[in-house]
Backbone:
């Protein structure tokens, strides 16, 4: 089955700096890669996703890049703000894995003033 | 107000007891999922169901059971066979294919005393 690894497990940045979180996946058939944000005490929510036919996708201050050859994808947050502090999860799903998502272990992002 | 409702929010159980966590959605979603969240381990899939009266095991199904008698309901039973049941449990749903947003409930925290 699919295996998703996520790094780093914790990340601390200064407000205004950029943050990058990286994930690798094992199943070359995976074709959908979402990112979820979970604020403290709240439910995870989708913030951005990318499909395998696209190399990069942007939405305001967040962007995701995908390298299918290397089987890794990354989340980029620019101009970080205190409200970006949360746990971020990457995930992967593929045609060969059934109608389900496999999540990474999460990254605790802390944006310091 | 559409969404996913999980209950109870907090649950305490003695060892050897079975407990059932409720998950109800009024989004008219076909697929429903149960994830377990432990610190440092991300979200791990327990069971999922794509249609009524059908469900599949996820990565950590041992010690759990589910049913899907109605489209809007997907209860999870944590049995006494689950060796380490203390965790945060999240229910989620999606309209159809997993390549769309996964909507999560607010979670149920189970503590075994």
Residues:
């Amino acid at each position: 089955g699919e295996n998703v690894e996520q790094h780093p497990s914790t990340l601390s940045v200064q407000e205004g700096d950029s943050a990058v979180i990286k994930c690798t996946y094992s199943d070359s058939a995976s074709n959908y890669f979402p990112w979820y944000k979970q604020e403290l005490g709240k439910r995870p929510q989708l913030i951005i996703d990318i499909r395998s036919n696209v190399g990069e996708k942007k939405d305001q201050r967040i962007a995701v890049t995908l390298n299918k050859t290397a089987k890794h994808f990354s989340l980029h947050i620019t101009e970080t703000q205190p409200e970006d502090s949360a746990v971020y999860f990457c995930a992967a799903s593929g045609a060969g894995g059934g109608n389900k998502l496999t999540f990474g272990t999460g990254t605790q992002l802390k944006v310091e003033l | 107000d559409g969404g996913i409702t999980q209950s109870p929010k907090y649950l305490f159980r003695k060892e050897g007891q079975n407990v059932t966590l409720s998950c109800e959605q009024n989004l008219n979603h076909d697929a429903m999922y149960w994830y377990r969240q432990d610190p440092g381990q991300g979200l791990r899939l327990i069971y999922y169901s794509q249609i009524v009266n059908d469900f599949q095991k996820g990565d950590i199904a041992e010690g759990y059971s589910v049913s899907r008698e109605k489209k809007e309901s997907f209860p999870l039973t944590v049995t006494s066979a689950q060796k380490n049941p203390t965790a945060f449990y999240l229910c989620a749903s999606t309209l159809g294919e997993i390549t769309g947003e996964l909507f999560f409930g607010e979670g149920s925290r189970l503590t075994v005393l």
User: Anything to note?
Assistant: The mean pLDDT of chain B is 92. The longest strand of chain B covers residues 42-51.
